[in-house]
Amino acid sequence: MKNAIFIAATGQNVGKTTLCLGIMAALRQRFSNVGFIKPVGQQHVRIHENLIVDKDVLLFKNYFKLDLNYEDMSPVILPAGFTRDFLDGKIDSTHLQNSIQKGFKQVSSTSAFTLVEGTGHVGVGSLIQLNNARVAASLNLDVVIIASGGLGSAYDELALNIELCRSYGVKVKGIILNRVLEDKREMIEEYFPKALKQWDIPLIGCVPYNEFLSLPTLKDFESLFKTKLIAGEKYHNCHFPNHRMVAGSLEAFQKEELLPNELIITPATREDIIFSTLDKHVRSENNSSSVHALILTGKHAPNSVIIERIKLADMPVLYAPLCSYDAMKLITSFIAKIRSEDIQKIEQAIQLAENNLDFDKIIN
Length: 364
Prior knowledge:
The protein has 364 residues and is α/β, with parallel strands linked by helices. The chain has two domains: 4-214 and 339-363, Rossmann fold; 218-333, HprK N-terminal domain-like (Udp-n-acetylmuramoylalanyl-d-glutamate--2,6- Diaminopimelate Ligase, Chain: A, domain 1, 3-Layer(aba) Sandwich). Helices cover 43% and strands 20% of the residues. Strands 2-7-1-8-9-10 form a six-stranded parallel sheet, with helices on both faces. The protein has a four-stranded parallel sheet with strand order 11-12-13-14, sandwiched between helices. The protein has a two-stranded parallel sheet with strand order 3-6.
């Protein structure tokens, strides 16, 4: 058995990458040199003209300052149209598997321990014969599976993923429950190990729900609405737990105090609301650690007078060409991913993992 572990999950958005950050940091305290590889990636970024890599690989390489090659850390990327090319016979499965084997060999040969992050649920990649269970089997690695905190629903999702691992002869070394609600934690910690006895798999830890890790930044909103800030670039990495859609009278708006780090969504034609918010921002900027932001909506972009006032106030403002209601729906359903520049989130993720996981069960 190699000195490495494969981290899988029961689905998207269960916090796998967030927990991997914490696991990576904890492993670095226990081993002299820890490597990272994501064998199969979907969401990717372009490093230079001839190289695209998984976003998580970029995050881990930058934050932990890993002296590893991108090609080894991110050997297989699935861009748009990849599966069709595979089915058309344009892509060779053996070549993909060899790339993963080569990348893992390079990373693990220079690392005292290697963290391998899977993609989506255990079955993701089956169409190209590279699902997580098959990849883990090819690397001769045990798997730790992360599931969303719960009892019945988490167990049901785990059942599917564990059975797929077992069909490839992969040992599931333990389970991590993530985003466990505080009022259910004690119950889950008592009963989930009992449920796992059927498979003889230990519970590695219950990680409590942390609202801050789900909060988007203005950088996220730029990506969400495919636009750029009009002003306030220095606030790019600020988080906004409070959102308010303003469509009523100016008098009603002015009667209410802005909440700490509140995001105001209002039509770009509402000069009265916009100017009032800009004035509040200017007055409070030097007297408060709180930041406020505006998302202007509607078919008509803000006029030159409004833009000039926004730049003068240097308040974070962006324009999204859709109605306020649709903008609000997108914002409230948006799931923020951790970025390498979001140091606050990374540090919280590391602390959560260190405080709530039994690393002896991962390493031994």
